[in-house]
Structures are given as structure tokens and as C-alpha cells.
Fold:
Amino acid sequence: MIVYLIRNKLNHAEFYIGCYLKPLGSVISIHRCNTREPKRTSKLYLKMREIGFDNFEFNIIDVCANGNKDELRNMTIRYIRDMKPTLNNQDYTFDKNQHSKEYRAERKEHNAELHARWIERNPNYYQEYRDANADRMKEYREANRDRINQLQSGYRQYNTFAKQLRNISIY
Structure:
């Protein structure tokens, strides 16, 4: 399991960072084949077609010895963030999950205000929706009665088990 770098020999500022589970020789073979496929339109393959595959050098920059794929991916992302390769398509400069959480937290009050205004302008929306779709919802419930009962039974069992766990005192 390796983290590797592909560098343009003609312009050292252009490079790509990737990871693979097999040796570097396999990486080279795969990239050589992918370069020949016109449907591959990443920055790397476009540049390889433009100046030629032989104008790129392949180097191992790190090895993930423990065999953990998640650790390999995290190592790769760290290298991409630190080295800022120009031929990678995906941007790992920020943590998308953390960014989303922060964004939602910052916008929570604003979104609540927007929702409240929408409810003021559409006070009967939910009731109108239920009335307009009552027949369709009834048909669905009748057609899927067994599935609904099965799901509800599962939820009841889970809730009973969770309640029992909460009542157990560890201390």
C-alpha cells in the first residue's frame, strides 16, 4: 500500500498524488492504460496525452505498512493538503463534513427564521397536502401493510431494548 507522486519531467510544478494497494509497477501500468482511453478526462490524463506518458516520472512518497485502507486514504489526503498537487481533480483543502457542520450551525437561526416566514405565508400547506394525498397515502398503507407492521415491530423491539439498557446501572 503506497502513496505515490507522478511528476511532469518538463514542468516540475505539475504533479499528481495518489495511492494504491499494489506495487508501483502496477500503478504505472494502470496509468499507462488509462492515458490511452479518451473517456478519461482528468487533468492528469489530459496532460499525459498532451506531452506524452514518457514525460512523467513515478515515485513512492510513503508506504502504509499496517494494511489499513482508511489510514492509506488519510495519509494521501494529508500529502495532497500539504503539497497541493496541480494535476489532482479533487480538492482536499478542507474537511467537507466539518465545513457542513459549521455552516449548518452558523445558519441555524437564519434557517429557522426562513422556515417561520414560509409557514406564515403557507399556513395550511401541510393540511392541504394531507387532504390532497389522503387517498394515495391510504392506498400505500393498504398495499404495504405487512412491511409497515414489520418495520414498526422492529422499532418497538429496538426501543424496548434501548429502554432496558438505559435502566441498567453500571455503578
Notes: The longest helix spans residues 96-121.
